Amino acid sequence: MSFVSSLLAQMTLKEKIGQMSQFNNDDDEKLENSVKNDDVGSVINEVNIDVINELQRLATQESRLGIPLLIGRDVIHGFNTIFPIPLGQAATWSPELVETCANIAAIESSNSGINWTFAPMIDISRDPRWGRIAESLGEDPYLCSVLGSAMVNGFQGENLSDKNSIAACAKHFAGYGASESGRDYNTTNIPENEFRNVYLPPFKALADAGVSTFMASFSDLNGVPVTGNSWLLNDVLREEWKYPGPVVSDWGSIPQLVTHGFCVDEESAAFEACQAGVDIEMASDTYAKNLPLLIKNNKVSLEQIDTMVNRILLLKFDLGLFDTPFTESTLLEEKLNSNHLNVAKQVATKSCVLLKNSKQTLPLSKAKISSLAVIGPLADDGYEQLGTWVFDAKPSQSITCLNAIKKHVGDSVDVSFSKGLETSRSINQEGFNDARQIALSADVALMILGEEAILSGEAHCRSNIDLPGCQEQLINAIYETGTPIVLVIMAGRPITLEKVLPKVDAVLFAWHPGTMGGPAITELLFGETCPSGKLPVTFPRNVGQIPLYYSQKNTGRPASDATFVDINDIKVRAPQTSLGMTCAHLDTHFSPLFPFGFGLSYTQFEYKNIKVNKHLVNIGENVEITVTISNVGNFDSEEVVQLYIRDLVGSVTRPVKELKGFQRVYLPAGQSEKIVFTVHTDELAFYNRQMKLKTEAGLFNVWIGSNSDTELKTEFEVVIQQD
Ligand code: GLC
Q: In the chain, where are the structural domains located?
């Protein structure tokens, strides 16, 4: 009999239910007593190493069977060293960098006794009104799958029992990003075919990557809240995917089944969640209160409980907690690790996306400018640049843009500074004059605007995603001075910039860049490095276009420039059927402001000679697609080369484009390189009309380019091999 099985056999029902209960540490004494009494299996939100070691001592030396604790924390984009928000990390399109960030986060958090993080968040996010888009990896299932798997590897390392490995958690399973109107916790209605082809693939990828745990979402999925959804948590996760790890509820999501109107009371909620397969209850006590009676009344079987507790004990065993429950602190927490900071700067540098650079305003040159006006409420704020989901970092350790710029230019450039507005939401324009004055006497106005950290993240949704407050007015005020404007935006979501773009000469989108945001942005602005970030999410022109994403369906009447009629061009009493009659708004062009995958460099890249190695591809074979990319500009730079396909005809309609490959390549100015992609026909599979995952024969278009709007294409045909 295995160690876990023999331990399980010795446990009382009370001890088993204790393993299924996760306590939020809001009362030390109550928690310590509960641990000693075998009522606790895991703890959330304790980060003091001495408290954690004492809790582990109570658990392993004073409880009856000495079972160690899982210690969970939201280590979302760093612990002491903060990296760009996940949406910003996604803009690097670099699994290697994303993995490194997660690995450093694991090193720093495990050093405090944390052994479980509630990350990666891999909800497909196509509504920038939703605050949690900030902690997502964007709109695309392929990009999310690749980067989310890299994060799991970073957190969990080679071996989960290694000192610096922590268990990861695929969340929020599933479909949470489809919350209606971008309001958090809202209803989701997702047809099964869309659910399986868009929202589930990243979770399946992480299950295949060995993620240790899953978290059930708060959301109501097609009328059955996920936390009580046996189809999703049992039929899909356990039966279809054979996933072995524990599922944790979200915060209070089990008693919320009553609020949903799905359960009449908490006993019923405990029953439904248990039947669905939620193994651990986060921060509420419906299991502790109701499972004993449910089992006594034979509504829940002991076998069911044993199956659930077995998953929890196996996780603790795999983490090595039975051998090493205590943590010996090795990192000097008050002193951030310089290697970690270097990675934070590198990732922030590669996450920034250059959206506009007219008249080659950027890069700035110390030789060409003698005065620089730095303006904006986010230019010198080490707290706001960290972004959402930051609990264990010290904002005083951030390096802001203003400080980094001053250090970079030294005495060679006169740097003046004015906040212009107190915060990103301020409507008091008293500071405009001061800002105007310094802009008037400067060669360039560098405006650092965007959203405070609190304006994105959980429950922080916006119905209008323009720059908040009077920031647009501040841009107008500086525009009137005639001084060229470089705009840097720090935000947790796409911002609607259509009104702002004509007023500024360059735009660098920095997301919330983290601890080293200042040096990273400075390095890019002054051309030490070329911007190379690419959008992991579509930027709409205005909020009325949402949801707007590149991998849309063609519809029976696709919009086109040939048929689009702008509202201002419509003749009075125009005949009813004269306006194009296609899938477009009258008052906004149907294209996004910036497409998925978009990002400029200081140099220019040319793509030529796209080719396939064979036109007919048998099911089960690979097809090779090659292209020649040339750096035809004056700067050495990295570029994210992207490969998209389109399955022209399917038993269910297929998107007009789907990302199926990308490579981040470095190309010195003047150099060319042949890039090769290999795609297996299995990667073209989708859930068909019979809800089976299959690749269908037929014609495919394939594109390679620098964003999802690329037009360089060729084609191949998948055929079923004739015997
Ligand atoms: C929150 C979030 C979840 C997080 C958990 C613990 O409500 O939905 O993502 O991991 O509670 O903080």
A: 13-331, 343-525, 605-719
Instruction: Give the residue, out of 25, 26, 118, with the most ligand 1 atoms within 8 A of its beta carbon, to mutate for a pocket test.
Output: 118
- What separation in Å is there between the alpha carbon of 54 and the centre of ligand 1? 25
pLDDT reading at 722 higher than 70:
no
Per-residue pLDDT, 116: 98
Count Cβ atoms within 10 A of the Cβ of residue 537 and give its class: 0-12 exposed, 13-18 middle, 19 or more buried.
buried
Q: Residue range 54-77: average pLDDT?
A: 98
Q: Tell how far the Cα of 43 is from the centroid of ligand 1, in angstroms.
A: 13
Q: Which atom of ligand 1 is nearest to the CA of 283?
A: 6
Largest CA distance in the chain: 84
Environment class of 694 (CB within 10 Å of its CB; exposed 0-12, middle 13-18, buried 19+): middle
Known catalytic residue at 709: no
Domain 13-331 coded CATH 3.20.20.300: yes
Which listed residue (127, 250, 380, 392) is catalytic? 250
Q: Does residue 605 sit in helix, strand or coil?
A: strand
Ligand 1 in reach of 251 Cβ (< 6 A): yes
Distance CA 661, CA 647 (A): 15
Alpha carbon 483 to its chain centroid, in Å, reads 36
Q: Residue 573: its pLDDT value, please? A: 96
Domain 343-525, CATH number (from 3.40.50.1700, 3.60.21.10, 2.60.120.10, 2.30.30.40): 3.40.50.1700
Determine contact, residues 418/447, Cβ cutoff 8 Å.
no
With bands split at pLDDT 50, 70 and 90, how would you rate the model's confidence at 723?
low
**Is any atom of ligand 1 closer than 6 Å to the C-beta of 135?**
no
Reported as a single tens digit per residue, the pLDDT across 626-650 is 999 999 999 999 999 999 999 999 9
Query: Average pLDDT, stretch 68-86?
Result: 98
Ligand 1 centre distance from Cα of residue 274 (Å) = 20
**Closest atom of ligand 1 to CA, residue 172:** 9
Specify the pTM.
0.98
**Dihedrals phi, psi of 321, to nearest 5 degrees:** -70, -25
Three-state SS sequence of 148-182:
HHHHHHHHHCCCCCCCCCCECEEEEECCHHHCHHH
Is the beta carbon of 171 within 6 A of some atom in ligand 1? yes
Ligand 1 centroid, distance to 250 Cα (angstroms): 6
Residue 502: CB atoms within 10 Å: 9
Burial class of residue 643 in the structure, from the number of CB atoms within 10 Å of its CB (0-12 exposed, 13-18 middle, 19+ buried): buried
**Which residues, including other chains, have CB under 8 Å from residue 431's CB and lie 6 or more apart?**
418, 419, 420, 421, 422
| Whether 553 contacts 657, CB under 8 Å | no
What class is the 605-719 domain? mainly beta
Q: Are 41 and 20 in contact (CB under 8 A)?
A: yes
Model confidence band, residue 333 (pLDDT cutoffs 50, 70, 90): low
SS3 content of the chain, % helix, strand, coil (to 5): 35, 20, 45
Report pLDDT for 334. 60
Residues found in the chain: 723
The token duo for 240 is 């279809």
